[in-house]
Amino acid sequence: MAQTTLTLNRTGDKMPIVGFGCWKVANEDAENTIYTAIKNGYRLIDGAADYGNEVEVGRGINKAIKEGIVKREEIFVTTKLWNTYHSKDNVRAAFDKQLKDLNLDYVDLYLIHFPVPLKNVPIETAYPPGWYQPGEDKVQLERSPLHELWPEFEKLVDAGLARNIGISNMNVQLIMDLLTYAKIKPSVLQIELHPYLQQSVLVKWVQEQDIQITAYSSFGPASFVPLGVDSAKKAAPLLQHDDISAIAKAHNKTPAQVLLRWSVQRGCAVIPKSSSEDRMVSNADVTSWSLPEDAMAKITQLDLNLRFNDPSGYGFNLPIFS
């Protein structure tokens, strides 16, 4: 039987293994895009405060609910705390702002977006605030340790506002430390994952801890070229890669489907985004078939340990993956 969900620790919630990502969905398109994705069968919507489109994403979700396409409990909504709200005094206000923007009573999964405690920017000053203080061009950190942040996430669970909590862009060392004091273990780790960055050791270890993995940027450099990321501009596009294209042709699939299936077959959830309804439908069709071992082995050979979503690559002087 095809695997279509991942079971989360503690709650036993079934997280869809294929979701729809909200990063870089334009505000003017977001409501209709999310509504269309849900109409076409997507049941996991992955957003974040930093994407700046949660009001519109919430409208799309609520439109689908209002029209009876889905019930609220049939939608798995993920969002993320931004770096400027890591202080234990700022988490709840930031979360409340997000929940109000989404116009929901709870979220299914709340993640720490990056393990980077940036100096707070008040919500009324700038929202979402990005990486810099208003008017500044250098990153400023604050003393907001993870061991004080995580209990605030656990309070959201206790209050029934977040069914599950998790992390993103963290390595084994940080996760190992977190597990020594967490009363509620993270349910999910979300990381950049594609054939150029396979992170096999991290994936295996995290899954052994009963923490599920969501892969983002499954298409590799495609989303990062417009952002001017040097490594992305120099990398061969995965969607046009000869090996990926050959595998796709051999199995009568698209290159995008092959890339998504590769992660799904490793037991990881995927969250592709597309503005095209046809591609939405195609991208979702990755659970009813599988890649043979020789195709998986061929893709394994593409690993370059090449990361695109690295704060250092944006000039922020935050080598968090070094």
What's the total count of β strands? Answer: 10
Shape descriptor reads globular
Give the domain tally. Answer: 1
Regions with pLDDT < 50 over 5+ consecutive residues? none
SSE pattern: EEEHEHEHEHEHEHEHHHEHH
Q: Which bin fits the share of residues in helices?
A: 25-40%
Number of discrete helical segments: 11
Supply the CATH superfamily name: NADP-dependent oxidoreductase domain
C-alpha end-to-end distance: 40 Å
Structural class based on helices, strands and sheet pairing: alpha/beta
What is the CATH C level class, in words? Alpha Beta
Identify the CATH architecture. Answer: Alpha-Beta Barrel
CATH topology: TIM Barrel
Mean pLDDT: 97
Rg, rounded, reads 19 Å
* Order of neighbouring strands in the sheet with most strands: 3-4-5-6-7-8-9-10
Largest sheet: 8 strands, parallel
Hey, roughly how much beta strand do the residues contain? 5-15%
Features:
TIM Barrel, about 325 residues, two-stranded antiparallel ribbon
Overview of the structural elements:
34% of the residues lie in helices and 13% in strands. With 322 residues, it is of the alpha/beta class. Helix 2 crosses helix 3. Helix 1 links the parallel strand 3 and strand 4. The strands form two sheets. An eight-stranded parallel β-sheet has the order 3-4-5-6-7-8-9-10. The protein has eleven helices and ten strands.
